[in-house]
Amino acid sequence: MADATRLLAGLRPEQVLLWSGAGISVEGPTSLPSGPELTRRVFGTFFEAGALATVLTYHQVVGLHTNPLRAYDTSPHASQLPGLGTALDAAARARPEGSPDTFAILDDVRKAVPNRLHAFAADHIALGGRHMTANFDTCIEQAYETRQGRPVPDSAVHHFHGSFAHALDSRGIGATLGRIRTGFPAEEAERMYRLLRAHRAVIVIGYSGRDHFDVDQLVAGLPSDGLRGLRLLWVMHSGHPAHVPDRDTVPLQFLLREAGADVHIVCGRTDQLLAQVARDWGLPAPADPLPRAPADPQLRVTDAERHRASFLLYRSLGLHREVRRLLREGGTGADTRIDLVL
């Protein structure tokens, strides 16, 4: 980790962009699910038994793999999880008008409270830094207001997948997810690119880098020198002894290099890195972690709704064998046959 912080030597806080994902909201008292855990929650709630295993099997067959660090996953190749937005969209369309809000499955995210990593991000913003995050929760904003006594400055925190800061309820987040599941709108892509180009360095924390529908597409579309001069420090969190992997661990890291970024991947504890960065910037070190107490919102979903949701999901993913199977079994509803191409 000492080598990692040397990469930031001489850079002022306002020259460094923080880029975060669900991993920073896992610790207590926030206690939210990680990205993969949230996807598995959605599948376990809204789809037929075995639906996730079915999708992962097809992903394996066609080569949709993640390449996890051996430090915390012994599998050399894991099938890539389907996108959360794709799953929630199918679940919402499968439920009749007037049924409980499908996106209440995100209620614990909407009600989340900050932890010590959000506090570090808030202190960084107070020094002129900016933050880009995949998270829906408003924990960074809450932490800033608590520590500074005023709302977070406009545009200091950018939620590229939408946020409860700008959505009245969970359904609003669902609408945002529906917009990005086939790639970012042009204005969002341009905003993210400007954010990256406006900084000398980026620290990536708690982010899986597996947003292949949108973030990967954005970076893959940049010119070969689009991010030239940008130093990117990607922290792969692990309690194992720190080491520097000798190759990219997720496709996004390779794409960032292809766009000209100087990418450095380190493996170790996120809080230890941030403690060193905090010291260099004259900020308080992150406090001790609190125990995790995860919640799991419960929704009542009928077997018929699970059947229809599975049908719609398989159809959207082009899994025609599964579509035919569910049609033979019946119960998919006449509306699901519209525009069906087999």
Structural notes for this entry:
The chain has 342 residues and is an alpha/beta fold. Helices cover 40% and strands 10% of the residues. The protein contains 14 helices and 8 strands. The strands form 2 sheets. A 6-stranded parallel beta sheet has the order 5-4-1-6-7-8, with helices on both faces. α11 links the parallel β7 and β8. The radius of gyration is 21 Å and the shape is globular.
N-C termini distance: 52 Å
What's the mean pLDDT score? 86
Characterize the biggest β-sheet.
6 strands, parallel
Structural class: alpha/beta
Percent in strands: 5-15%
Say how many strands there are: 8
Low-confidence stretches: 67-76, 336-342
H-E string: HEHHEEHHHEHEHHEHEHEHHH
Number of helical stretches of at least 4 residues: 14
Helix content: 40-55%
State the shape: globular
Placed side by side, the strands forming the largest sheet appear as 5-4-1-6-7-8
Q: Radius of gyration in whole Å, from Cα?
A: 21 Å
Sum up the structure in keywords.
single chain, 342 residues, alpha/beta, 14 helices, 8 strands, 10% strand
Write the layout of secondary structure elements.
Blueprint lengths: L1 H5 L9 E5 L14 H12 L4 H11 L3 E2 L11 E2 L4 H11 L12 H4 L5 H11 L3 E4 L5 H10 L8 E3 L10 H11 L5 H12 L3 E5 L9 H6 L10 E7 L13 H8 L3 E7 L1 H12 L21 H15 L2 H10 L13
Parallel strand pairs: 1-4, 1-6, 4-5, 6-7, 7-8
Antiparallel strand pairs: 2-3
Helix pairs in contact: 2-4, 4-8, 4-13, 6-7, 13-14
